[in-house]
Design a protein that fits this description.
This is YtzH-like family protein. It is a single chain. The chain is built from 5 helices and no strands. With 92 residues, the chain is an all-alpha fold. It has one domain. Helix 1 packs antiparallel against helix 2, helix 1 runs antiparallel to helix 5 and helix 3 packs antiparallel against helix 5. It starts with a helix and ends with a helix. 26% of the residues are buried.
């Protein structure tokens, strides 16, 4: 059974929150972020303001997948992680 867009947003926020709180993560989490964002970008229930945040999360996940220093990448995006989650909370 596929996840609803609300379930996908919740999962996305959970992963971003974990990155923000723990200051670490895994490549598989970045890959999961990418899959979630791709799915949400094509969902008609998602408004344009969220899609702009999703694009930023997509870029973050892409950079995270291919960096040799994932934890440094996460640490350097601490403020962004918090802002993205806040923006998604406002819009859902």
């Amino acid at each position: 059974m596929p996840l609803s867009h609300l379930d996908q947003i919740t999962l996305l926020k959970d992963i971003l929150n974990n990155h923000q709180v723990d200051c670490c993560g895994s490549v598989s989490e970045c890959e999961q972020l990418e899959r979630l964002v791709k799915s949400l970008m094509t969902d008609p229930h998602i408004n344009d303001s969220v899609k702009s945040v999703l694009q930023e999360v997509y870029d973050y996940s892409q950079n995270g997948q291919y960096t040799q220093h994932l934890n440094s990448h996460i640490e350097s995006n601490q403020e962004n992680l918090s802002q993205w989650v806040d923006q998604m909370n406002i819009n859902f």
